């Protein structure tokens, strides 16, 4: 009987903290895997640009007349 409040706290934490975070991470992974040449993206560092080339784990991004080679994990879903 004394474990019931502890179990309820763990359940609430799972529903309000862990589950939404896992869902968001899954959506971001799907978004990163679907990027293609010509898409406009924003990196986690705030750099805006257009994708010129997509590799296995990297992209080449054109931003303000320069080319950057960055990891796909640096792409923000925002």
Description of the molecule:
- The protein has 78 residues and is an alpha+beta fold.
- It has one helix and five strands; from the N terminus they run αβββββ.
- The chain has one helix at 4-33; strands spanning 40-43, 48-54, 58-63, 66-71, 75-76.
- A five-stranded antiparallel β-sheet has the order 4-3-2-1-5, with no helix packed on it.
- It is rod-shaped and about 65 Å long.
- It starts with a helix and ends with a strand.
Sheet/helix structural class: alpha+beta
**H and E order:** HEEEEE
* Strand percentage: 25-35%
Poorly predicted parts: none
Task: Supply Rg.
Answer: 19 Å
Mean pLDDT: 92
Largest sheet: 5 strands, antiparallel
Number of strands: 5
- How many alpha or pi helices? 1
- State the shape: rod-shaped
Q: In percent, how helical is the residue content?
A: 25-40%
Distance N terminus to C terminus? 45 Å
Strand order of the largest sheet: 4-3-2-1-5
Key words describing this protein structure:
32% strand, rod-shaped
Write the layout of secondary structure elements.
Layout: H1 4-33, E1 40-43, E2 48-54, E3 58-63, E4 66-71, E5 75-76
Antiparallel strand pairs: 1-2, 1-5, 2-3, 3-4
Please give a quick description of this structure.
With 78 residues, the protein is of the alpha+beta class.
């Amino acid at each position: 009987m004394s474990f019931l409040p502890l179990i309820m706290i763990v359940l609430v934490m799972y529903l309000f903290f862990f589950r939404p975070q896992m869902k968001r991470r899954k959506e971001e992974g799907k978004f990163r895997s679907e990027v293609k040449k010509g898409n406009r993206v924003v990196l986690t560092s705030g750099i805006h640009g257009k994708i010129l080339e997509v590799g296995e784990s990297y992209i080449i991004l054109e931003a303000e007349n320069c080319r950057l080679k960055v990891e796909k994990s640096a792409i923000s879903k925002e």
